[in-house]
Amino acid sequence: MAVTLYTYEEVAKHNKVEDAWIVIDGKVYDITNFLDEHPGGEEIIFENAGGDATESFLDIGHSDDAMKILKGKYIGDMDPNSKPLSKKETQPAETVKKSEGSPTFAMVLSIVCLIIGYYVLNN
């Protein structure tokens, strides 16, 4: 099966929460349905929507599981004749709403409160 080639102009159009693509090492990934699952938060990954995320991706140590997930999001390669756009031309069309807090943090806080309450009541 032939690999689909994309230009930087085509990728730049996919810079919305409901339609987000990124480029990593010349490969194009549709990360739309992964934004809210990203362990580092959707804001971090969305910053590169519609553009080249190679540097940002390589700066962070990603697990083998992350690499497997990325492979599953692959949709094609960059056209080698396409010229990269400026950062301004690839900015996300919108911003992601910042989350009000992590469910994990709330769970940990609840457990800590229960432990403190138990300790206070039994001493």
From TrEMBL:
One of its GO terms (cellular component) is endoplasmic reticulum membrane. The chain crosses the membrane at residues 104-121. Keywords: Electron transport, Endoplasmic reticulum, Heme, Iron, Membrane, Metal-binding, Microsome, Transmembrane, Transmembrane helix, Transport. Its main location: endoplasmic reticulum. GO terms for biological process: sterol biosynthetic process. It is found in: Endoplasmic reticulum membrane; Microsome membrane. It is a single-pass membrane protein. GO terms for molecular function: heme binding; metal ion binding. Residues 3-79 form the Cytochrome b5 heme-binding domain. Belongs to the cytochrome b5 family. This is Cytochrome b5 heme-binding domain-containing protein. It comes from Arxiozyma heterogenica. The lineage of its organism: Eukaryota, Fungi, Dikarya, Ascomycota, Saccharomycotina.
